Amino acid sequence: MAVRTLTIDGKPVSAREDQTILEAAREAGIRIPTLCQLSGVSNLGACRLCLVEVAGVPKLLPACVTLVQEGMQVTTNSERLREYRKMIIELLFAERNHICSVCVANGHCELQDMAISVGMTHVRYAYQHPKHDVDTTHGKYGIDHNRCILCARCVRVCDEIEGAHTWDMAGRGGKARVISDMNVPWGSATSCTSCGKCVQACPTGAIFRVGATVAEQVKDRTRLDFIVTAREKKQWLG
After folding, report:
1. Would you give per-residue pLDDT tens digits along the chain (238 residues)?
2. Is 92 helix (H, G, I), strand (E, B) or coil?
3. Is the CB of residue 63 less than 8 Å from the CB of residue 32?
4. Which residues make up the CATH 3.10.20.740 domain(s) of the chain?
5. DSSP code at position 143
6. What is this structure's pTM?
7. CB burial class (10 A; 0-12, 13-18, 19+) of residue 222?
8. Class of domain 3-77
9. Would strands 73-75 and 3-8 be described as parallel, antiparallel, or unpaired?
10. For 188-228, what is the HEC assignment?
11. Please, where in the chain does CATH 3.30.70.20 lie?
């Protein structure tokens, strides 16, 4: 496979032609923030935190779905990008009801960590205060739509790793939400295998184990990586 040579933040980088800017940057030790990207499943470009500047291109490009090109000059950490990322995080907090002090993922939340990393000290936008429910009809897990950031990680791991496709997205804009099966309570979703992969994939406390209390929701992403790697290497075939 052909190799492409590009520069990221002034650093020469080589990457395969089928790699994205995000993958090339990570291999080169350059951090680009993301929330919707998850190793082992397809990239979606939903959160827009990985937007980068490419010389000669007037618009910002999502690094997770933009393939590398020969001679590409990429900037990942300009003042413009830092301000966009802070704005995105603030909008995520304003869009739903994120009360960190009583969240099961407090201290173990990617959204919380990202807010700290981008230097968010307050939210400049009007809080929407939507009326979202908490579904605890499932025997083992629950979903709190107030804490969902619509990253669709749960949708992708359920479809691409578990093969059940219990989760999907419904609605548009501020009315968008994650649904199970044909918009039935999670406990009534006959396709659900109760595997818990969606719980591990969720970056916030939106999908949680029933009975978990504040700051108890620690995620182990290595479980998902192990499953994907084992399948790719056919380690489970007799």
Report:
1. 799 999 999 999 999 999 999 999 999 999 999 999 999 999 999 999 999 999 999 999 999 999 999 999 999 999 999 999 999 999 999 999 999 999 999 999 999 999 999 999 999 999 999 999 999 999 999 999 999 999 999 999 999 999 999 999 999 988 999 999 999 999 999 999 999 999 999 999 999 999 888 888 888 777 787 788 877 777 765 4
2. helix
3. yes
4. 3-77
5. E
6. 0.91
7. exposed
8. alpha beta
9. parallel
10. HCCCCCCCCHHHHHCCCCCEEECCCCCCCCCCCCHHHHHHH
11. 100-232
Measured CA to CA, the distance from residue 147 to residue 102 in angstroms comes to 11
**Under 8 Å CB-to-CB from 152, ≥6 apart: which residues?**
36, 44, 46, 169, 178
Q: Would you say 98 and 111 are in contact if contact means Cβ atoms under 8 Å apart?
A: yes
Q: Rounded to an integer, what distance in angstroms lies between the CA atom of residue 139 and that of residue 180?
A: 15
d(CA 12, CA 161): 35
| Class for the domain spanning 100-232 | alpha beta
Copy the structure tokens of residue 15: 């990457």
- Cβ atoms of 27 and 41 within 8 Å: the answer is no
